[in-house]
What we know:
Blueprint: H1 6-21, E1 31-36, E2 39-44, E3 47-51, H2 58-70, E4 84-86, E5 89-95, E6 98-99, H3 110-122, H4 134-146, H5 154-162, E7 179-181, E8 190-192, E9 200-202, E10 209-211, H6 214-225, H7 231-243, H8 256-280, H9 287-299
Antiparallel strand pairs: 1-2, 2-3, 3-5, 4-5, 6-8, 7-10, 8-9
Helix pairs in contact: 3-7, 4-8, 5-8, 5-9, 6-7, 6-8, 8-9
Amino acid sequence: MTANPLLPELTAKARAAAHARTPACPCGAPVTLADRPDATVVRHEDTVAKAHAPDATPTDLTPRLTVATHLPDVLLSPLTPTPVTLHGRIVTFWPYGTPVDPEDPDTAPWEAAATLLARLHRTPAPHALPPMRGPAKAAHAVARLRALAPHPAVAPVLRAWTTLPAWARAETPMPDITTLCHGDFHLGQLVRHPAPNGPWRLIDVDDLGTGTPAWDLARPASWYACGLLAPDEWTRFLSAYRAAGGPAVPAEGDPWPALDVPARALTVQTAARAITKAAAADRPLDEIEQSLVDACDRMSSAPPELSTHLAK
C-alpha cells in the first residue's frame, strides 16, 4: 500500500500544536487514529490533528467549528475555530478524548449519547449553518454501490433505496430545515474529555447542520430493527432521549412513524458500504453484513408509509 504523503507533515503539525499547549510534553510516539480517503487523523499526546475530506471547504466547515466552540457542553470544542490548510486539505486541531471501548459493548454510553443528541436538537441553529449531510452521505454510498461490478447483494439494496422518499435520497430538501443535527451519529462519535474520565462529548462536526433530527437516531434504530442492537439498549437510548426533551420523536407512544424512513435510509447506507468493502477485499459478506442486505430485501416489499417497523 502506498504511504499517505500527508501523514508525516500532519504528524509534525500535531506535535507542534501539542508542544504549544504543553511545553513539557512527554513526547510519546505519535499515533495514527485514522487514515482514510475522507479523513486522516493523528494524535500527539493530548492533541489531535485532523485533515478533512478533500472536498471540504472553509465556507462549510468554519460555521460548523463555530457551533462546536459555542456548545462545549455538547460538542468537543476545537483548539481554534479557524482551520489551516496543508497540501490542499483543511486541517483542524482538537484536544484528545477517550473514545468508547469497542471491545466492551456493555459499557456503551447510550444514555449519555441520547442526552447529548437531545441537547443538540434543542439548541437554536445559527442561520449560517449548511444542511446536515446525512442524506447526502447515504446517496454517496449508494452511488459507489452502483459503480461496482455485478454482485448478488446489490439488487435488494438498490430496490430498498428506491422505496425511500426523495428527501432521504438527498434529491430534495429535508422536511425539517431548522433543527441542529449531528448528521452522522454512532458510538464512534463520542469521547470523554478531559481524558480519561471526563464527561462524554460528541465529536466530528463534518456533517453537522440543519435538518431532520430523527436522522441522528436512525443508526441505533436501524441496528435494533435489524436485530443488531439488544432491545434493552435501544430502550435505554430512546428513553433517555425522550427524558431530555429530544424533539425527533413524540414524548410518548410509538416512535417509528418518525424513525422509519431515516432508519431505512441508514440500513441501505450501511449495507451499501458493507458490500463495497467486501467487494474491494474480494471476500464474501459476513453474517452481520448479510443481515443488513436481508433487511433491505424485506424493506423493498413493505413501503415506508405502510410500515412502522422496518424489519420486525
